TrEMBL record:
Gene3D superfamilies: 3.40.50.450, Nucleoside Triphosphate Pyrophosphohydrolase (3.90.79.10). Residues 228-386 form the Nudix hydrolase domain. This is Nucleoside 2-deoxyribosyltransferase domain-containing protein. It comes from Actinomadura rugatobispora. It comes from the Bacteria. Pfam families: Nuc_deoxyri_tr2.
C-alpha cells in the first residue's frame, strides 16, 4: 500500500484499514480567535511519516469548527482513543484560553497504557503533576511539538497492516509473540476477529476483550477476555522409584497472591518467564531452575516434553515443559538448599521434595502442575518406572 496520511476528524467514521493510528490528545480552543496546535501536528506527521503504508490521525476537532453534539463527541473520542496505537498528548496549556481540564482527565486514563507520549512547552503552567507520572511510567516526553510527534512515530516505526477487527489491536500488543501465536491459531481455524478492546495492561501482560466469528459454528462470540503474557518454561526434576507413586519430584514453595491453599503458599515445579523478548525456552528453563532451586544443570540434561496452554479458557500463553532425572547426590543437595529466588523482585522460593503419591494425596499442586508432572514421569514417557 502506498504511503499516505488520513485525518479523521471529530465524529467521522474511521477507515477499515491502516498501518498505524495516532490520536491527538490535548486542549482544544473554545474560541475561533485562539489558534489550535493540531494543524501544525498534522503537518509534522505528514512530513515525518515514513512507514510506507497508511497512517490514520484522529483529530478530535470538528472539520468545520462545529461543536454541537457533546455526547456524540465524547463517545467518538472514547472509541478512537481505544483504536489508537499511540495517544499523542500535547499540552500547551493556557489557563485563560486553553485550560486543558478535560485533558487532565484523559491523561489520567491513558498515561499508563503503554501507548502514550507527552509533550508541553516549558512555560506551559500546571503540567508538573502530569510530567511526574510520565516519568514514573516511562512515557516518552518532549518540550516542543516536533519532538512529541517524533516520539510517537519512533515507537510506531513502520507500523503493521491491519484491517477490520485487527485495527482494534494496538501495535504494542499486535507485535508480541503471545498475541501472534493466538491470532495465527484463530486464523488457521478459519475464525475472524471482528473487534477487540484492551481491558487492562500490566507490564508485559495484557487483557483483551475480543469479538470473534466462530466460523465452524456460524456464530459470533463476544466479550470474552483473553490474557496475553509471556510463555513460561517449567522443569520437572524427578528421581524414579519402584512405582509411579514412589517417584520423587522436586517442587518449589513460593508465596503468590492468587494462591488459595491451606498454608497460603503455591507449590509447583520450578519455572517462569524470561526477560521481555526472550524466545529460548530451554535457556529460560535452566535459568529459572538455577534461580529458584540453586541447582545448575547443563543443557544436555534437559528433555523437552512440548508446550501447551495452561488455562485455555482464559490465557493464551503456553508452558514449555522439560524434564530432568536427578541423582541421589543432587537430591541431597536440594534438600539442604537455602531459600532461593530473585529477592530484588520480591521472589522467595524454598525447595520441597515429595513423592508423586504424596503430591496427589496431599493435593500439593494445582491441576496444571499435576498434569505437567504426570506428563514427564508417567511410564513409557522417558521417566518413572518402566
Amino acid at each position: 500500500m502506498a504511503q499516505e496520511t488520513i485525518t479523521v476528524y471529530a465524529r467521522e467514521e474511521p477507515p477499515d484499514r491502516w498501518d498505524a493510528a495516532i490520536f491527538l490528545a490535548g486542549p482544544t480552543p473554545r474560541s475561533p480567535e485562539v489558534p489550535s496546535w493540531r494543524p501544525a501536528a498534522l503537518a509534522e506527521l505528514r512530513a515525518r511519516w515514513r512507514g510506507g503504508g497508511r497512517l490514520v490521525v484522529f483529530d478530535p476537532e470538528d472539520r468545520h469548527g462545529i461543536q454541537d453534539d457533546y455526547t456524540g463527541q465524547v463517545d467518538w473520542e472514547e472509541r478512537c482513543l481505544h483504536l489508537a496505537d499511540e495517544v499523542l498528548f500535547y499540552v500547551p496549556r493556557d489557563l485563560d484560553t486553553m485550560p486543558a481540564f478535560t485533558t487532565n482527565v484523559e491523561w489520567g486514563m491513558w498515561h499508563d497504557s503503554g501507548r502514550a507520549v507527552f509533550g508541553a512547552p516549558p512555560g506551559a503552567p500546571k503540567n508538573r503533576y502530569l510530567l511526574h507520572y510520565a516519568e514514573k511510567h516511562g512515557v516518552p516526553t518532549a518540550t516542543d511539538l516536533p519532538g512529541t510527534v517524533a516520539a510517537a512515530l519512533d515507537r510506531i516505526g513502520a507500523g503493521a497492516p491491519r484491517s477490520g477487527g485487527e485495527c482494534a489491536v494496538p501495535l504494542a500488543l499486535w507485535r508480541t509473540g503471545p498475541f501472534q501465536r493466538w491470532y495465527g491459531a484463530q486464523r488457521a481455524a478459519g475464525n475472524v476477529l471482528l473487534g477487540a478492546r484492551v481491558a487492562w495492561r500490566f507490564g508485559d501482560q495484557w487483557g483483551l476483550r475480543v469479538r470473534v466469528r466462530v466460523t465452524a459454528e456460524d456464530r459470533v462470540k463476544d466479550g470474552e477476555l483473553v490474557v496475553f503474557r509471556p510463555d513460561t518454561s517449567v522443569v520437572v526434576l524427578y528421581r524414579p522409584g519402584p512405582t509411579l507413586d514412589e517417584t520423587t519430584v522436586v517442587l518449589v514453595r513460593e508465596f503468590r497472591g492468587p494462591g488459595a491453599t491451606a498454608d497460603g503458599f503455591v507449590h509447583e515445579p520450578p519455572g517462569g518467564s524470561g526477560p521481555a523478548g526472550t524466545d529460548d525456552p530451554p535457556a529460560v528453563a535452566l535459568a529459572e531452575l538455577a534461580e529458584e532451586t540453586g541447582l545448575e544443570l547443563p543443557p544436555g540434561r534437559l528433555r523437552a516434553y512440548g508446550d501447551r496452554q495452561v488455562n485455555a479458557a482464559m490465557s493464551a500463553h503456553r508452558a514449555h515443559v522439560f524434564g530432568a532425572e536427578v541423582t541421589e547426590a543432587e537430591l541431597a543437595e536440594l534438600r539442604s538448599a537455602e531459600p532461593q529466588g530473585a529477592a530484588a523482585e520480591g521472589e522467595r522460593t524454598a525447595v520441597e521434595i515429595a513423592t508423586f503419591g504424596e503430591i496427589r494425596r496431599r493435593r500439593l499442586v494445582d491441576w496444571a502442575s499435576l498434569g505437567m508432572i504426570a506428563g514427564v514421569i508417567e511410564p513409557g514417557n522417558g521417566a518413572g518406572p518402566g
